[in-house]
Amino acid sequence: MDESIELLFPDLYGTLSDKVAAVTQVASLCKDVQVLEHIVEHNQLMSAFARLLEEDSNVEMSFIIGKVLLAISKVADFHEILANHRVGATILRVIGLELKRVGHRLDMKSQPFTTRQEHFFFICLSIL
Prior knowledge:
The chain is an all-alpha fold. About 80% of the residues lie in helices and about 0% in strands.
């Protein structure tokens, strides 16, 4: 398991499509609590998720990372790890940025939220 996580690291620092593919691969593994345990124990991976969530402005990437963090947040034993990586504060900042984007789109009289953004907000609020 740890070897497969390690293989994802070059992709987490590559192009946007590489990052999305790597995070999607991790998200597909999150159905098993034992796998989640390996993920949260991997400090570098958790730090990469927190960094990507905050730095990357791609809604798809943020949505997939949000799904991983939501799966982790459903296990009470992992809440401290999420707190150590300041996931809650990061999510609040990301929500603020997304709301600013929506405000700019409203100024241009377009649709306020995309379906993906609505799902992203739901996931973020569920994590908190």
